[in-house]
Amino acid sequence: MPIRIPDSLPAKTTLEKENIFVMTQYRALHQDIRPLRLLILNLMPTKIVTETQLLRKLSNTPLQVEIDLLRTISHEAKNVDSDHLESFYVGHNDIKDRFYDGMIITGAPVENLDFKDVDYWPELCEIMEWSKSHVHNTLHICWGAQAALYYHYGIQKYSLPKKLSGIYSHHIMKPNSPIFRGFDDVFNAPHSRYTEVHQADIEKVPELELLAVSDEAGVFAVKNQRSRQFFVFGHPEYDRDTLAMEYRRDIGKGLNIQVPAHYFPNDDSTKEPIVSWRAAAQLLYTNWLNFYVYQTTPYVISSITPDMEGEDPSLAEYINK
After folding, report:
1. Residues 307, 310, 316: CA angle, nearest 5 degrees
2. Residue 98 region by backbone torsions, left for phi larger than 0, else alpha for psi between -120 and 50, else beta
3. HSE on the CB side for 106, CA within 13 Å?
4. What is the C-alpha separation between 96 and 94, in angstroms, rounded?
């Protein structure tokens, strides 16, 4: 089944070339079905690349998904054409009265700043607070996950001695959780960050549950007890060449950056990386969308409540594993 996006969004051509079913607005409007409404707050500077990566993962599902793209108004994006933002993105004031089945908040290259020194921090806090009453389930990625854990639960981030970049192995803490349906016992995922959260800090918060960790990269995934908020500290949506492009960009800036770990064959940056995380990444997004959004979101979307009053108890017991 398709993902529904504007006909002229640049990601549409890329996805169609990959034989991903993208539905036109006209056809979607004439189907007798309520699509899932998803909101993506894209904080990454490479907006079109990030759009395409996320849409690729969200498209491989038997559900019709309608996407809105959200940006921060208090920050001027410098790496994307203003026409693209005006054509495809909305501000929070444009959608604050709407309700969404799911939301994704991406990472951002601001990890070395204190949260409150990020120029759009007040706006982001407003959006995260709004999400508790207007979004059924929210998935936070990388810095977005760190920011959300700090805002919602007061968990601090810590600077790493050097940039964590590469493909790392992870093991699952809660193997019966639906988010890991179909996963192997050990799975790979990309990381690219300068900061981390500590497992011990998460374990002190009763409302939070550790889902997966890495011996090298630390915490990978966390959720809250109600399974309404997910926090993923890697970038499972990354393409084959994303870490390579970041590495070469940093080298070009004269930064003392090491070759991404476990990424290039024999750590030779002249060789093409071997993808070892794509299947797990697709499962992660598909399971989140199916089990934690579609299975529990109310049909009347405006009836979303922060505490999920009226949910099916048997389904809630399964989802909250």
Report:
1. 75
2. beta
3. 26
4. 6
Check if 30 is active-site. no
Contact indicator for 296, 315 with CB cutoff of 8 Å: yes
Would 267 be classed as within a structural domain?
Answer: no
Residue by residue, what is the 3-state secondary structure of 63-107? CCEEEEEECCCCCCCCCCCHHHHHHHEECHHHHCCCCEEEEEECC
Catalytic residue among 136, 140, 170, 235: 235
- Cα dist from 223 to 9, 197, 233, whole Å: 32, 14, 12
200 domain residue, yes or no: yes
165-194 per-position pLDDT tens digit: 999 999 999 988 999 999 999 999 999 999
**Residue 125 designated active-site:** no
Tell me whether residue 82 is in a domain: yes
Q: What is the pLDDT of residue 21?
A: 52
Least confident interval from 21-35, 69-83, 100-114: 21-35
Q: How many structural domains is the chain composed of?
A: 1
Tell me whether residue 26 is exposed, middle or buried, using C-beta atoms within 10 angstroms of its C-beta: 0 to 12, 13 to 18, 19 or more.
exposed
Residue 62 belongs to a domain with what CATH number?
3.40.50.880
Q: What is the Cα–Cα distance from 157 to 150, expressed in whole angstroms? A: 8
For residue 107, the enclosing domain spans 3-239+276-316
Q: Which of 142, 170, 209, 246 is catalytic?
A: 142
User: How do strand 218-224 and strand 186-196 relate by DSSP bridges?
Assistant: unpaired
Residue 80: inside a domain: yes
Quote the DSSP letter at residue 178. Answer: G
289, exposed or middle or buried, with CB in 10 Å at 0-12, 13-18, 19+? buried
Q: Compute how many other C-beta atoms are within 10 angstroms of the C-beta atom of residue 247.
A: 23
Q: Which of 41-45, 120-124, 252-256, 317-321 has the lowest mean pLDDT?
A: 317-321
Cα(37)–Cα(54) distance, integer angstroms: 15
Tell me how far apart the terminal alpha carbons of the chain are, to the nearest angstrom. 27
